[in-house]
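Human: I wish I could look at a protein chain and see how it folds. This is the protein in question:
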Amino acid sequence: MHHGVTTTELYLAAMLIIFSAPYLIWRGLRTDYYAPLVVVQIIGGVLLGPGVLGAAFPTYYATIFTPDVITALNGVAWWAVMIFVFVAGLELDLSQAWKRKAETGVTAGLALATPLLFGAVVALGMIRSPGWIGPQGQTWQLVLGVGMACAVTALPILVLFMEKLDILRQPLGQRILRYASLDDIAIWGVLALILLDWERVGRQAAFLIGFAVAAWAVRWIMKRIPERDRWYVALIWLAGCGLAGDWSGLHFMVGAFLAGAVLDARWFDQARMDLFRTHVLLAIMPVFFLSTGLRTQWGVGGLMVFGAAAALLVASVTGKLAGVHLAGRILKWPKGEASVVGWLLQTKALIMIIFANILLDRQVITNETFTALLLMAVGSTMLTIPMTTPRLAKLAKLAGLARKAG
């Protein structure tokens, strides 16, 4: 008796590909130094999407990634990225930034404004040819959105990288976290501005007012329940904020970030939170990477997309390094410190991809612009460890010599 392939079987076949292919490449080629597993998973999503393997083997793509399978994968991806953004908001610690507000403000401001300006200049060049602005986008939204994408620092990935470099708990690592935390808030503020819908401004005002009241109530509850219950209540709070944020027109990711940002990380055990983030990255975020890869397109011409990605990468890296070096001169940092800080802060990865996904969802940018931004994020993240490691070793050597000198 003939047995047709069911949607469940196709879904599980897609999951098998999603989890096995990037892992085997990462482990087999030993790419961890220049391309950690998270980067290989992002690249794997691009390769498995319609732009590469889908174009080369259309039968494979049409057979595995049917509309029903893509819908199921997107559902998992939405929840995965909501949890990830929620944890990023939860881990923000603005108290330390406030204690050192002058130094943190100068560094974070220059580290954000300079690459934003450089990226905006590249965006102005891009819009001279058609195909980059989405059907619901305006010129100022594209320029500001692309500029902000160049300025983003991926705070969760930055934490993973600094753990790998063994500087996360050191004074330098804690300083870098303060700078990235302030920039993280600015990113979501700019996103809310780009997504502001004057036709639904009443809804958005109602969301912000209602959110403020609900946040006060949730904080009151969180202080009075045991830690084991806080995790479950936090997920209920996350789902509610995501729903309200999307209803208002600000996107469910803005609601997810705000849901975490108004809670105190000290209410949750740090070791459990680190483990929770690791499990999210391991178990469900790869589905988001694949769903991201399914959006890659080369419709305005492959060379133009790659050219735009290269220009954006140069703008992103040079802008971040220039801004941080200027801050280092103003604040009189030790020699070599600005390079280490700048290279770590320029890593993009997930947060920029999430940011670009939202702009694509709202049709502010096209698939081609999204692809250029995605390639820029991958390149930026792959540069981080190889460029930072020798500079960090040199900085440690200079610090040792300084201590010997008195």
About this structure: The chain has a mean pLDDT of 85. The two ends are 85 Å apart (CA to CA). Residues 186 and 360 are 20 Å apart (CA to CA).
